[in-house]
Amino acid sequence: VLEQFLQEGRISALMWEACQQQAQAGSPELQEALLSKIVCLPDHVGNKLQGKNPPVFFPQNYFPLLGGAIIQVLQKISDSLRGGLDCSISFISHVLGKVCVHGRQKEILSVLVPRLTDLTKSDCIWQRICWRLVECVPDRWMEAVVLGFVQREPGADILSRLLGNLVVKNKKAQFVVTQKVLLLQYCHTTAVLQNLLGYLSLDSLRRPLLIKVLQELLETWSSSSAVKHSPPEQQQYISKAILICLSHLKEAEIESCRQELLTSMMEGVKCHLDSNLPQIRRLGMIVAESVSSKINTDGPVLKFQVKVIMKFMSGVQGFEEIEALSQMIQGIIANANTYLEIRRGSHTFKKRRYLFTENNNSCFYFFYSDDDLIPYDMSEDKELKTKAPVYIRDCIEVLTGSEDVDKWEATVQALESLVRKNPAATREVSVELAKILLHLEEKTCIEGFVLLRQRAQVAVLTTDPIPVAKYLTSQFYSLNYSLRQRMDILDVLVLAAQELSYPKSHGKTKRSGAQKPCIQLLPGSDSSKDWRKIVDERIKSKTRRFATGQSQVELASSPNEFSSVAGYFFFPLIQHFDRPLTTFDLLGEDHFVLGRLVHTLAILMYLAVNTVAVTAMGKALLEFVWALRFHTDSYVRQGLLSCISSVLLSVPAEHLLEDMTEELLETQSWLGDVVEKDPDGDCRRLALQNLLLMENLKKKL
């Protein structure tokens, strides 16, 4: 009977009668009972019939049918209004709200939205019916209905036609649109953001909300706490919303809040550039450039000398105009250069030369008359090469006191090979040479200077590890060093440890089996090639091969040179991290260097596998991690979790369970909290990997 009831369209007659009763002040208990039965009918029938449920009661079939019935009822309401009769639409609004809050927005709105879009194109009565339909939804169901419409709509103009000024009339809808969707959630697509913010911009009553939304978005974007504790995905989401808002603002609206926008922009770009994550820094640059170009149309704008490719910005309104502006500037430069060539070709005497500069967007010109001079023929000139020093002490003299630039360049280029060829001479002056290289600055524009200096430092450290490692680790916590020099020390320690821990040679490949036969011919024979070809073909035709020998690699066995010096690399770095200096505070503003230090310790721990000191290193590293486990910077937390992985992979399982049982239990509990609560996705992934490593260790034992 129920199946026949649905198939004959009687549910629309039932809802129409409920609307009429509601207009005549019918029983609220009856209305509530009807509402519950209509919305939950698939659940009730499914619970009774179990596996014998007819297809018409399946949710994917029932709710589109219910959507069609709602359209029929709305049509009757439209006819009644045109005939001068009163009707109530509240019951239909309650049905729509309850269906949406039960998670069936997709099924019912896939029928409602296209029909309402067509009916409201040119009919003002249908527009009023649609507005009342969403306005009468109770507040407890309003969020589900608004999100359903926003996600289904293909454009902001259609959304404006269907919802009207709902966000102005209903506080709950206003909270959902201006706060919850934009600031508290970040799961929606770019199309949803464009629909939502475009909807706010299409009516004069809603545009103040657009300005308010932009100010709140920029306030969140410029909050240092939000940058530290919110995941990168949410910050990308907020950045998209800011760019879309900017594209909808008019000049008069920008003028009214220019100072607030400027303040938020300056605070926000500082917070983003202070972040240790590259994607957050790039995000701050692109948003700051966009805001600056909007609020400073006449004056100077922020411009970062970084080429940024933001894949997630593709298709975002407002971002295209920045690219168009950049292309326009490049076009101006190209035109200026073309004009320069034309001017140079058109004058013969005292030609005027135009120069276009990008910094101040102006043209300078000056007179010159040296074009008629005949240049010297320098085609046969040869470059004079300066001979590099051949002794280590000569290199030290050149690097410290020589004014000969060519000799200085030759010394920098040859220093690494010279150190590796003369280990005995290097050990005599290793610490002095390490000090010189640490403070060495580039005198000329030598190609790859930073890499050449780093390779030389690594060569010195691997040649004489203990004294040089003592010097470098002591200088890491010393005064009067820049952050760049401290990070150079960490890089050199890692590269040297990696080189020391690897075997020096990788073996030779030998072919098993007998040597291939060959025939030697006299070198003066003219037909030697023909003879060789004939003989090879005969051998090939008369030789039967059952299998070919496998290549065998004989690995050269060599001691792990890092084993005896691992402690000199590791323990001095872990000692003084909590002692702030005048110009260096790892636990304060220099958290980026702390992140690099933590990652360095993780690598050193991993390279110390199978060494004598690995157990002591692992225990010290676990204590270090425990002291910093609640650090606010996600880059530092990622390094701490990498340290845990290195300990689990490097320390023998027996020693882990015998010597570090208590630390491991505490660490396991902390890792569980990280997996559940950490806002950074990489931190959650690393914590989960560590928990799996712990489970594997337990299974092995």
UniProtKB/TrEMBL annotation:
<dbReference type="Pfam" id="PF10193">
    <property type="entry name" value="Telomere_reg-2"/>
</dbReference>
<keyword id="KW-0472">Membrane</keyword>
<dbReference type="GO" id="GO:0016020">
    <property type="term" value="C:membrane"/>
</dbReference>
<dbReference type="GO" id="GO:0042162">
    <property type="term" value="F:telomeric DNA binding"/>
</dbReference>
<dbReference type="InterPro" id="IPR019337">
    <property type="entry name" value="Telomere_length_regulation_dom"/>
</dbReference>
<dbReference type="GO" id="GO:0005634">
    <property type="term" value="C:nucleus"/>
</dbReference>
<dbReference type="InterPro" id="IPR057348">
    <property type="entry name" value="TELO2_ARM"/>
</dbReference>
<keyword id="KW-0963">Cytoplasm</keyword>
<dbReference type="InterPro" id="IPR016024">
    <property type="entry name" value="ARM-type_fold"/>
</dbReference>
<dbReference type="GO" id="GO:0005829">
    <property type="term" value="C:cytosol"/>
</dbReference>
<keyword id="KW-0539">Nucleus</keyword>
<dbReference type="GO" id="GO:0051083">
    <property type="term" value="P:'de novo' cotranslational protein folding"/>
</dbReference>
<dbReference type="GO" id="GO:0051879">
    <property type="term" value="F:Hsp90 protein binding"/>
</dbReference>
<dbReference type="Pfam" id="PF25320">
    <property type="entry name" value="TELO2_ARM"/>
</dbReference>
<comment type="similarity">
    <text>Belongs to the TEL2 family.</text>
</comment>
<dbReference type="InterPro" id="IPR051970">
    <property type="entry name" value="TEL2_Regulation"/>
</dbReference>
<dbReference type="InterPro" id="IPR038528">
    <property type="entry name" value="TEL2_C_sf"/>
</dbReference>
<protein>
    <recommendedName>
        <fullName>Telomere length regulation protein TEL2 homolog</fullName>
    </recommendedName>
</protein>
<feature type="domain" description="Telomere length regulation protein conserved">
    <location>
        <begin position="389"/>
        <end position="497"/>
    </location>
</feature>
<feature type="domain" description="TELO2 ARM repeat">
    <location>
        <begin position="205"/>
        <end position="300"/>
    </location>
</feature>
